[in-house]
């Protein structure tokens, strides 16, 4: 008898033979399945880490921004066997640079809170005295001072005004503020932890990122990645460093003009100057404090100095530092900063220009390719 199995109608000889090989899927079907699996796992990973993505993004921005300084330190210091010393020192310095001003601001705020408490107690006993600048108004000074005295100058009116504050609401705001501070502290600690490991594995992460860009998008992908990194460097130089410079210069002006708490207001000016059009708010506040003390000429000096410093910084220094590095028109840099801040908060200061730089680079490549094809 023939050894071949004769299949009956409606039967599958391969399925009935246990030694037969299972049918294989086509390479196209495997590629679709693999892509779907990657997308599902990536989505799950983003969903799991969505609460820590800002902290990771800050760590990446800091590693990119401090890259040149870290390279110099790495050339000057020998790398230890476990590569822990230099990343640990760099992370510690970053923590001190960030936490140091916050500690100073906290101490100043505590002093201000004591002064505010003394002011409230004095107002409840004697009323709220009229601001000094009311006596120096060009017209209506006597009427304004008399109105202030009738409205706030006696203890009953001041006490009524202070008791209008809802204690429950103040307590609720305090609890929310405490919860937010704890949350931010946890994210900051996670950012420092991520920063340490990014410093430690910086070369490997950079090579893997460039390889992935090459494999996914070709040489153009690597160019886009390098352009985004350059935009982060330019943004740090043009926003952070220039903002700190503005804060130092205007802090000196505050000191000689007699502004109360010049160090605190100088730090506030530096932070505000990192955001476009934010510095006028800070030195305007300083001028208002001087006007409240009746010092009109120093207030005008502060306003004039503030406008001169911000004009030079915004029209000459920042366009060169940011636009020269990213090869991006300053208008698009400004739009990227403002849109990024509105969308991502302070992190948008760096993400916005980076995205704009990548989009402009892709647009230039596209239009250049169309011109060559034509």
From TrEMBL:
Pfam families: AI-2E_transport (PF01594). Keywords: Membrane, Transmembrane, Transmembrane helix. The chain crosses the membrane at residues 55-72, 84-107, 181-199, 236-257, 263-292, 299-317, 329-362. GO terms for cellular component: membrane. It is a multi-pass membrane protein. Residues 1-27 are annotated as: Disordered. It is found in: Membrane. InterPro entries: AI-2E-like. The keyword Nucleotidyltransferase does not apply. Belongs to the autoinducer-2 exporter (AI-2E) (TC 2.A.86) family. This is Transport protein YdiK. The lineage of its organism: Bacteria, Pseudomonadati, Pseudomonadota, Alphaproteobacteria, Hyphomicrobiales. The gene is ydiK.
